[in-house]
Amino acid sequence: MSRTHDTSADELDAFEQVRPDLLRLAYRMTGGRAEAEDIVQDAWLRWDRADTSDVINPKAWLSRTVARLSIDHLRKVKTRRETYVGPWLPEPVATDMPTPTPEDPGHAVELAQDVSLALMSVLETLKPEERAAFLLREAFEMDYSDLASTLGKSEDACRQMVSRAKTRLRSNRPRFEASDEEHEELLLAFAAAAQAGDVSTLTRLLTPNASLTSDGGGKATAALRVVSGAEEVAKLTAHIATNKDAMKGDIEALRINNRPGFYITLEGKIEVSYSIDVEDGRIAALYIMRNPDKLQRLLDPPLGNA
User: Fold this and answer.
1) 206-215 and 282-289 as β-strands: parallel, antiparallel, unpaired?
2) What is the CA radius of gyration of the chain?
């Protein structure tokens, strides 16, 4: 497609100002960094080629475009997701934002930046249109008339999709968001107990209904189902830590998806990443990434800052 006009400095600046938010939107829609970057690049090409002289709100125009492109992408990979080996987790990404807590004045608006695995996992249970409706409404504050136009739905249908998504999110996200310090303390204790194979200590660090989700994608050893219950999670964690070479490497701290986490390298290669959700002072959910394809870019610049 040929360009219809020369992009002005103002148009380029308008795009660059919202690019980090667009990357986070596309990432939360697709769960992949490369996919998100490709979608945002496609959105840029469309912005570059379009006559934007009458566009009042570039962020709204671009977010609508990214949402539509993301929905198209998810429809194309639907079969691939359905045949994925074992549980599917989003690609872990480095981030540099502090963990929001209920005491923070800006807590209510932190959703615009939130790429936590807790949120991502819930979003993954929604249909693509529901996911887009929720994110555009809650994170981008899009009004329902624009949302209806973007998704090709009625305003009432969009309201229902957003309401269903909010209900599911409330019922699945942790009730209490720990501080960074508490996350880090629990992570250190967890790593030490795991490497020692200390099932008793691991069990005490976990909530009774704790879950463990590990993603190997059929390319690395991982549980083929989500493991639930403190004792079962503790036993599996200790087994992995004491029997797999991946846990015998060097542990490095890293903020993963807006939460303190760590990864382990063996002979210079990242073998696994760990991150947690915390509830009432204990670990409520453990996310383990083993799929080598999803670990390749873990040390890239923080999402949205590249």
Assistant:
1) parallel
2) 20
